[in-house]
Amino acid sequence: MFGFLMFLSLAAAIAFLVLADTFWGDDTWQWAADAWPGGAYGFAVFLGALVPIGVTLFGLSLARMDRKSWRAHKTRTFGRILLTVGCGTAMVQLVALVFNAQNTGKWGRGTSASPSWAFRNYPWLWAVGLASTLATAALLICLYVAYSRRRPGARDAATTASRAGAEG
Questions:
Q1: In the predicted model, is pLDDT for residue 51 greater than 70?
Q2: Quick count: other Cβ atoms within 10 Å of Cβ 131?
């Protein structure tokens, strides 16, 4: 039964990825340019901020899964699997949007096609999204460092290590 569910999940994921450009293409960027605050550049900032958040959630959900006792905690493990799959799927969609925005029309193997609507009208979307990604990643790293310094276990370990170094 588990193998069959994994097969269905994999088939659904492949179908979803095949249709990704249909769902997330120039229409999405045109909608964002008209309806999003800040236009397409504001949407690029939002998507750029989602990348490190999605990667962080993906990593945390994978790291916290207990592979040995999943039978004892089925609900928790199932929830973390859903979070991991959701974050992975969202990351693939974000990558599809980024590649669509960078489509210059010369990526195909044959004759060059016309560039995407997003690239024609907003050629610097990649720079805005990259800056947002880097800023959000730096913020998440700073938050992690501040969190790890405030944990009592980290403070006790640092105090014990400094005392051992002073005595030696």
A1: yes
A2: 13
